[in-house]
Amino acid sequence: MPSIHASSIPVFTQMLRGLSEVLRKAEVHATARKIEPDVLLQARLFPDMFPLLRQVQVATDFAKSVSARLAGVEVPKFDDGEKTFAELQARIERVLAFIGGLSAAKFDEAASREILTQAGTPKEKKFTGEAYLLTYGLPHFFFHTTTAYAILRHNGVEVGKKDYVGT
What we know:
The protein has a single domain (4-165), classed as Four Helix Bundle (Hemerythrin (Met), subunit A) (Up-down Bundle). Helix content is 60%, strand content 5%. The chain has helices at 4-32, 37-41, 52-71, 85-100, 129-154, 161-165, and strands spanning 114-117, 125-128. A hairpin with a 7-residue loop joins strand 1 and strand 2.
């Protein structure tokens, strides 16, 4: 397996750039069709799912928190106060700057580092860094980026796989 750094930071970076592009296209779509941006930002695939805005917040939370824990540094805290496409773009840029500033050396012991989580449940989970990235961090990150893409595609935004993948 490639290093934990090589398996995480470039993946998060590429996908966040794709998410940024999808959001850019969504904003252009809303403007061209005279759709209030909040209609898209609050759109959901199903009533019990998070809206687009929250999907983006959670995706960026996973990118920054997984990277920070693997690097053995403090997870930056964000207020989750975004309400516009521009504010979501700024959030993505802040996360890209943070993860881009984590040197590969910080990840040298990441595969075997013990990671402890308690995400939304009373049960604590222990992982090795490698298991944390591969079975927890990346799947959750991809779920939220995919859902954000799907919400916009479902609402008529002309995006495709190349936009999602960020290439």
